Amino acid sequence: MQLMKKMGKHSLFLRLLVPYLIFIVLAMLLGWVIYAKTLQLFEDEVSRNNMHILEQAKSTLERRLAEVEMVVQQLRNDPKIMRLQHVLDPFEGAMTYRIWDTQRQLYNYNLSNNFILDYYIYYNKSDIVLSPHSTYEMPKFYESVLFDPKEGLDEWRDRFFNGYSHRNLMPTQRVVYHDRPYDMLIYRQSLGYPNDPQGTIMVLIDNREVLKLFEGISSKDGSSIYVMDEQGQIIISIGADPAAVQPMNREELLHDGPSGLIKASPKTADMTITYTTSRQNGWSYVVAQPPHIVLEKVFYIKNIVFTAAAIFILFGILLAYFFTYRSNKPLKAIVRTLNESFHSEDNKTGNPFFFIQRSVSDLVDNNTRLQKEMRRQAPLLRAALFEQLLKGEVIGEKNIETALLHQNLHLNDRFCGVALLQFTGYDHSLSQEMLKDLDYKRVILKEAMHRLLGEHIYDHDVSEDKIALLFFDNSDHREDCERLIKQSLETLSAEIMQGLNISFAIGVGGIYESRMEISKSYEEARQALSFHGREQTRGIIWFDSLPQEQTSYYYPLDAAVRLVNVAKSGDWHEVERLLDELYRNNFVERHLPLPLLQLFICDLVANLAKLHEQVAPDTAVDIRPLMGQVHDSDDMKKIYDAVVEHYRAICDHVNERKRSQNLRLLDDILRLIDGSYMQADLNLDAAADRLLISKVYLSQFFKEQTGINFSDYIENKRMEEARKLLVSTEMAVNDISERVGYNSSNTFCRAFKRSNGLSPLGYRKATNPHC
């Protein structure tokens, strides 16, 4: 049970390790197959080598014996040699000369066969022995030329010369020849007839010359090489005494054919037998060797192979463990991160790869759903953005650019303007039929507008019967832009009014170069459309064409709202611009009577009072005296300047508070990084979660305050600490990487080299040469 728990705990490690082990096993199986084939090849090679030597020895020995037989037949048929067969007293009278003449005749048989040591002719009746060199009586020949120390003369004579022998080769035996011991083969051929032998021709064959034929075959460690005749008698042997050699039964030897290989078994006395049989005389040439002699090279290779296999297995297991550990560590980190992110316990006993696959699949599904939801919300978000632009709620050119890009709107044209279209013929009461009719007209109008006016015109539903048209144009001059808008609206009016019989009125605001003036153009379009309602005019009404009235002051609602919003943001330059615009319209361009100017200043001060209470209620500034000055003073310009200074003070207060908040937030961020940079999971998302702010704001705020990206700052902090540890300690690089917040030493080394231009070890050596 404990084993199963441990295996379950390390299931991921085992899953990664098993393929390496399978590879090692397959490699060993392949090696074993190659090894077995190699053994067989070497065994066959040794057997072929032995067989080749045996065949050569057999061929040479048969050729040499054939030469011996030929010489013996020539001697046997020589007339002079035949005449001496019946001589009884070889040294009487002229018989001595005949013997000398026959001996001299033997010189004619010049022997070139290096196997033949010498040859002799023995005559039974005269008991003499002739050779090319001398003539001996048998006792003298036994004593001085050839004898066996283990036998007497009579026993020796009976064994060698009695009876009839025809082409008889006696087995190898130890004799004394001219007072020196020799191992000899003795070839015998009797003279006369089988029932009346008259003598014997005896040829001495030097066994040393025979043994040279088998020099290529090893005869050590109990090996034996022997030649066996048809009766199973050993003729020649090497490596053991002929009497000690235990030859195989001839029938068992030749059971599988006249030549071949018999592997070691109890029948072969645990010897490997290589043999071949002569077709000429039926002799069997046999090599009996222990298996370790036959397979000496094979066993040598076997030792090398097994040693290499053991080393391969050892290093293979070590490398498999190393690579498995290296692959397992990041996978465990991924699984742990996924578990923490999804708060999942499903992978405690399950398949980690299935868990990763399922988690990634869930992430992909969630992302797909999020993308679909974002695409579904895109029209609503775009409508909300247009609503903010028209009302002046987006403050700052940079913020407008960011908001437009977020909606994939690349509106970088030079001029912009707003036209407000209103369907006519409807009162202020609502009904289902009226709303359906307006929806129908709105769809028809938008379809025609997109077909006729192109892509740089955007529409926004302001109310049930009003549609705002936003124009963007990249013309060089304002007049060209006005001409284009006029032409577009006239084309649209002709198409809709005449073709579809839909009536509407259009008010057009001013053309401006800044997108921040969209709200102003919209307000001007509203005023133009309002003028149409009062005067009952037709067609397209331009704000610039409206008559300048002196009965009212200029302080539209959108300007008041925009002034408050901009002041709340602390943007003094924009506040100053809006106040200057109000001053120009009311004090310069319009000649307002004092009561109207007082009303204008009262409105301005009233909005200032509301703003002061919202933004700076705790300040010591009191604006109540301004209300009294409005009624007591005739110098409205002086009061207006005081209002401007109050707006400046509010902007300064807002900016000071923002700076204080920014400093506190920046301090919190830096403290968080200093205390958590050694944690590998510290990133923009984690920091934003801890600080309870959005990651987008955190990234933008940190870049504005420090001039460096959040991730780059964390990496610099980690690199700074890593450099200190490399110089001041002897910690391993892997330990340092974990200490400074990296899961992988490879990732740490790449980041360190990218930041410092040297690897960690290179940096340590460069800063500490004695390291």
From TrEMBL:
InterPro entries linked: CdaR_GGDEF, Homeodomain-like_sf, HTH_AraC, HTH_AraC-typ_CS, Tscrpt_reg_AraC-type_HTH
Domain HTH araC/xylS-type: 667-766
Pfam family, one: HTH_18
Keyword line: Coiled coil, DNA-binding, Membrane, Transcription, Transcription regulation, Transmembrane, Transmembrane helix
Residue intervals passing through the bilayer: 12-35, 304-323
SUPFAM superfamilies the record matches: Homeodomain-like
Residues in coiled coil: 51-78
PANTHER family referenced in this protein's UniProt entry, alphabetically: ARAC-FAMILY TRANSCRIPTIONAL REGULATOR, HTH-TYPE TRANSCRIPTIONAL REGULATOR EXSA
Recorded superkingdom: Bacteria
Species of origin: Paenibacillus roseus
Lineage, broadest ranks: Bacteria, Bacillati, Bacillota, Bacilli, Bacillales
Keyword Nuclease among UniProt keywords: no
Signal peptide positions on this chain: none
GO MF term (any one): sequence-specific DNA binding
Protein name as it appears in the record: Helix-turn-helix domain-containing protein
